[in-house]
Amino acid sequence: MTDPQRFKDGLLAEIPGLRAFAISVAGNVERADDLVQDTLMKAWGNMHAYAEGTNMRAWLFTILRNTFYSNYRKRSREVEDDGTYAARLAVHGEQDGHMDLRDFRAALNKLPPDQREALILVGASGFSYEEAAEICGCALGTIKSRINRARTRLAELLAVDSVDDFGPDARSHAVLNAGPRRATIAK
């Protein structure tokens, strides 16, 4: 069984050599740093496969080299996309939603605290206008006004003019714009 502390010390001692080798094969410092990180993660995850007393340097360089060539082969099969191929995907990647949520949170944080509070109480927490007014200790009209101003300001911050501005593609637009449909049941 490999001693984890000794293994870690051995990995750390080899980083400068791994990095120099990675730069020479990758030709790019950022890609080389990623390559070294991948190598170290693979080595750490396969600590049980390392035979203590053998040449750790050679083992790590082999992992780095194999990782480089695997990545190279993978990149050679990838197609550079200007958005044409991605637009034809049946399901868009989750990163769009993640980025939209991040933008929404940033815009929400730019609202004045009283507007943000009112909007969250009604829009996110499900309270009625009356309940939100009671929680905030203000008149019903004040809550409605705060929510209206908050929604208007969010739309400005997010550059949203209509429902068509939501969703990554035309299919999303079609779903958002479609009215209720009646289901037909075959008899």
Automatic annotation (TrEMBL):
Keyword line: DNA-binding, Sigma factor, Transcription, Transcription regulation
Domain RNA polymerase sigma-70 region: 16-77
Residues of the RNA polymerase sigma factor 70 region 4 type domain: 102-154
Name of the protein in its database record: RNA polymerase sigma factor
Pfam families reported in the protein's UniProt record: Sigma70_r2, Sigma70_r4_2
Superkingdom: Bacteria
Keyword Ligase appears in the UniProt entry: no
Classification via NCBIfam families: PRK12547.1, sigma70-ECF
Family: Belongs to the sigma-70 factor family. ECF subfamily.
PROSITE patterns: SIGMA70_ECF
